[in-house]
Design a protein that fits this description.
With 342 residues, the chain is an alpha/beta fold. It has helices at 14-25, 42-51, 62-68, 79-82, 113-116, 118-121, 131-139, 198-207, 210-219, 253-259, 270-276, 288-294, 303-306, 315-327; strands at 2-5, 32-36, 53-56, 71-74, 99-102, 110-111, 125-128, 149-151, 167-170, 222-225, 244-246, 262-265, 281-284, 298-299, 311-312. The strands form 3 sheets. A 7-stranded parallel β-sheet has the order 3-2-1-4-5-7-8, sandwiched between helices. Strands 11-10-9-12-13-15 form a 6-stranded parallel β-sheet, sandwiched between helices. Helix 1 (14-25) links the parallel strand 1 (2-5) and strand 2 (32-36). It is globular.
Length: 342
């Protein structure tokens, strides 16, 4: 039994792509099962069931399969991934026999060792996308042996495709500091006070900036603004207009990447997926010091020398860069930094 998963409330990441591959190739002696929570949308669960066997995390059967599993393979390192018994785990620890394979939720360009270290997660194999990422995982205090960090790339890269339209995608990551916006399972909670945060003020200001909207209209561009799943319920705060659509709920990342010609993000590892498609990126890092002070990982990626686009620390510089790139028909000036010929 191999238990495969992404988030408790959604799929569509490395887990689903690997699950589809395993079910299609049917390795001998393997029973793959995709684990997902009841809270996930019915269409997501239906899609997974069309691929193979699905196990609901809240079901009575799940703990039994969990204890019988040979492998747990996930893009998530959430507690639900490696613990089917919640606060009663200590009664079952001696029955845990699985090996945990961590595929990561994107390229690991930060130091996550405070969270993902051996004594907290006990990962059997960590997957990396390149030598610098692998060395980072070995040298930082994760406490894994070098042979436990394997370069494979990300399964989800296999699902990327290109169907470019004149679309600007804005997709920032979440902020751990805004604790009223999510619960203990990192599921989104609506928070009225979100409108007073610097995050809201910056991105709402960006999607309503008249200079940016003017050039997008002139060049025939539309905009898609998407929040991280942890912030999903805050989408109601943002102001849509004739140019920008506000995505509600989970986004189809592959479709968004495929159809966009330019992306804005901040510290999110999705920048690597978008760069893989040879498309331009603008980094908006107006709160870098606060972000790394509160997040569960530390900065170790050199955005200035290794990143795939300009770094903007305020709204005006972000608008300037976006206007420049759109007026140049989204020419990518950072192609020499994309490590693979995709």
């Amino acid at each position: 039994i191999w238990l495969i998963s992404d988030r408790i409330d959604n799929a569509g990441d490395n887990g689903e792509v690997l699950f589809k591959y395993i079910c299609a190739h049917k390795p001998e002696g393997v029973r793959p099962m995709f684990v997902i929570g009841e809270v996930a949308k019915e269409e997501v669960k239906a899609r997974l069931r069309s691929i193979g066997e699905v196990l609901i995390a809240e079901s009575k059967e799940y703990p039994f399969y969990f204890l019988m599993a040979e492998k747990i393979i996930s893009s998530s390192a959430g507690e639900f991934t490696i613990n089917a018994f919640d606060k009663q785990r200590h009664y079952y620890n001696d029955l845990y026999n699985f090996k945990y394979y961590f595929m990561n939720h994107g390229v690991n360009c930060g130091d996550c060792s405070r969270w993902l270290n051996k004594y907290n997660k006990n990962i059997h194999i960590m997957f990396a996308t390149g030598e610098s990422e692998r060395q980072n995982d070995i040298e930082k205090p994760y406490n894994y042996e070098p042979e436990q960090v394997v370069i494979t790339g990300l399964a989800r890269f296999d699902a990327l495709y290109n169907d470019p339209k004149k679309q600007l995608l804005i997709l920032p990551t979440w902020r751990r500091a805004y604790r009223q916006c999510y619960d203990e399972k990192t599921s989104s909670i609506y928070y009225e006070g979100f409108k007073s945060t610097d995050f809201f003020k910056f991105y709402n200001g960006l999607i309503t900036d008249e200079r940016l909207l003017k050039v997008m209209r002139e060049k025939g561009y539309t905009g898609l603004f998407c929040l991280h799943p942890i912030f999903a319920k805050q989408s109601a705060h943002f102001e849509s207009n004739d140019v920008f659509k506000i995505n509600e709920g989970f986004v189809d990342y592959n479709r968004a990447f495929a159809e966009s010609s330019l992306m804005v993000t901040d510290y999110s590892t999705i920048a690597f997926d978008f760069a893989f498609l040879n498309k331009p990126i603008v980094y908006t890092q107006f709160d870098r010091e606060e972000f790394y002070e509160n997040q569960i990982y530390d900065e170790c990626f050199d955005y200035a020398n290794e990143g795939f686009g300009p770094i903007c620390e305020d709204l005006e510089s972000a608008v300037n860069e976006l206007v420049r790139i759109i007026e140049n028909d989204c020419k990518n000036d950072y192609l020499d930094r994309v490590p693979l010929d995709s």
